[in-house]
Write a structure and sequence with these properties.
The chain is elongated. The longest helix has 15 residues, at about 255-270. Strand 3 (about 55-60) and strand 4 form a beta hairpin. The chain contains 16 helices and 11 strands. Helix 7 runs parallel beside helix 9 (about 190-200) and helix 7 (about 155-165) packs antiparallel against helix 10 (about 205-215). By secondary structure, the protein is an alpha+beta fold. The protein has a 7-stranded mixed β-sheet. The protein has a two-stranded antiparallel sheet with strand order 6-7. It is about 45% helix and about 10% strand. The protein folds into 3 domains: about 1-135, Beta Polymerase, domain 2 (2-Layer Sandwich), CATH 3.30.460.10; about 145-220, Hydrophobic Seed Protein; about 255-360, no CATH class.
Length: about 350
Amino acid sequence: MDYLSSAIEVLNILNGNGYESYIVGGYVRDSLLNIKTNDIDLTGSAKPSDVAKLFKTIPTGIKYGTVLIRYNGYSFEHTTFRFDGSYSDSRHPSDVKYSESILDDVKRRDFTINALLMDSNKKIIDYTNGLDDLNKKLIRTIGDPNKRFNEDALRMLRALSFVSKLGFSIEGSTYKSIIKNKDLLKNISVERIRVEFDKISNGAFKKDAWKLFYELKLNHIFPNMEYIDDFDRTFMDIIIHNMIKTGEISDFWQFSKSTTRELKKAIDLIKNGLTNYNMFISGYNSSMYAIHYLKESISLWDDLKIHSLKELNISGNDLSFVKKTNRSKCLNYLAEKVLNNILDNDFNILLEEAKKWNISQL
């Protein structure tokens, strides 16, 4: 039995036990757009304790009425119909109350295209004109956009995620509300922001999404997101490009110590007029990948003595006295010396320096 058939069977079991239940959200939306998806969420009148009597469950979000149902080898997230209480952190409701009405549950959701329902007969049910927005390729909040974004500021970035994934436009009042409420994003954790930025970076329409990001002036909220005019980039591309360009490394993005260390190396090298040190260190430290941005940040590329390890007048085969596991590191060390004009790119000079380096590693 496939994923959807198993989900329908879960609905039938819930319905057969007196509960109202539906497939909701992303799966319904994507299936109507002929987009393959493997994430089916359920909503229904059954409370978590009721669901646990019928299926094997994992209490993944019990505070919000959510449990994970395991059935036929598949997982389905089931959330009980609910009202949301007040939002004090621009992200989560302080409390929730269960409801018997699907209408109450639908009205609390983010965008109309995410509030579509599918019943156990695969009939589509639409209480928010989501089908119309789907046909018009519009991303529109359910109800007052100011209220929706004050409840959960991350929804503003989620709107861009859907632009990137679907190629849709943001409806006018929703667009204006993002501009008005963008400062609320300062209340969101960097972990959640990075998740949404990764989604924006990986969509088929990421160019449109990043262009919109700057149109909405969301870059003013985050460090190292200064304006760029090349929208075919990932989130990390933009940040690293701007870090190297400005010479400033923000702690906001919580890079690992090794990435921060390599970024600082790249910035220092730019100040010295060098542009491609990372080409050499990337072989043994993949955390830093600044070469592209180093090249475009300054115009000395053509003046460099070498542009790759292949242009170094010594190779790993010449370093038989160095442990195999250390030869790449040694070559990178020599390349750095050549780039910094400390050594000439001469075989004998490089060989002698390699011998000294090898002794220092013992």
